[in-house]
Design brief:
- There is one protein chain.
- By secondary structure, this protein is an alpha/beta fold.
- It has a single domain, classed as Hypothetical Protein Ychn, Chain: A (3-Layer(aba) Sandwich), CATH 3.40.1260.
- It has a five-stranded parallel sheet with strand order 4-3-2-1-5.
- α2 links the parallel β2 and β3.
- This is DsrE family protein.
- InterPro entries: DsrEFH-like, Sulphur_relay_DsrE/F-like.
- It holds the Pfam family DsrE.
């Protein structure tokens, strides 16, 4: 069984169900005691900015700010370097606790022993 789960979410408001699934799985894994690393890429990059998660709505799903907060409290949240640059997002702009890192860090995480990776 994997002792770490790396989740890469590429969807945002453009694909709300896929986006919500990624955040939900991350939050449930954290609550279950699994080490979680959530990567925000593509359109999900916007959720690294303060207040953006609160703008997301999907009926019958947990509020995105709550899910993000739970992952931040016990896991790692990373904003893709290139995705941030394409959106003019700097480290000073993001929610406290979210780091900006690139593919080298992502590959290092997913190639470690005991890691399971998911892409949404």
């Amino acid at each position: 069984m994997a002792n770490k789960l790396v989740i890469k979410v590429t969807a945002g408001a453009d694909a709300p169900e896929r986006c919500s699934q990624a955040f939900t799985v991350a939050a449930v894994a954290v609550a279950s005691g699994v080490e979680v690393s959530l990567w925000l890429t593509g359109e999900s990059a916007w959720f690294a900015l303060p207040g953006r998660a609160a703008e997301f709505e999907l009926p019958h799903s947990a509020p995105l700010p709550d899910l993000l907060e739970s992952v931040l409290a016990a896991g790692t949240v990373t904003l893709c370097t290139q995705c941030a640059a394409r959106r003019d997002i700097a480290q000073a702009d993001v929610v406290e606790g979210i780091r900006i890192a690139g593919s080298q860090v992502f590959v290092g995480e997913i190639m470690a022993d005991g890691v399971q990776a998911l892409v949404y």
